[in-house]
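New to this. Look over this protein:
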Amino acid sequence: MSNNLYPITYWYGIRKEFLSRERLEEAREAGFNLIECAYDTETNLRVLALCAELGLRANVQDPRMSIALLGEPGWEAELDAMNGKRVLVVDDVISTGGSLKALDELAEQTQCTIVGQAAVLAEGDAAQRKDIIFLEPLPLFLH
């Protein structure tokens, strides 16, 4: 594995046809340790399993939440499926907390229990918050 100086190296925007064990092994050997999963549920589960086997972290985006956040017709059934569930709200980067707040508001429409809020990175003041879990702080660079 590469001697990367950064605690998190993020591989984002992988085309679905490149999602294979061999390709993820190459990413690991190149020093990537966090893989983005923003596909259909079946593909996300396959990538999660491969990442677990290869010792990689995965950031999964469920396409159903995008539909709910955009308010497109049909998302109500997805929220109904959350009733009675324990839910961990996860975002890629927390800056102002606006996305988490929007997800919390959606969750309030159900009978689920939010057990925590997490992110891969916390930017700026968000890294000081005690109500979120995050892997690493993301420093702000001002010009």
About this structure: DSSP finds five helices and six strands in the chain.
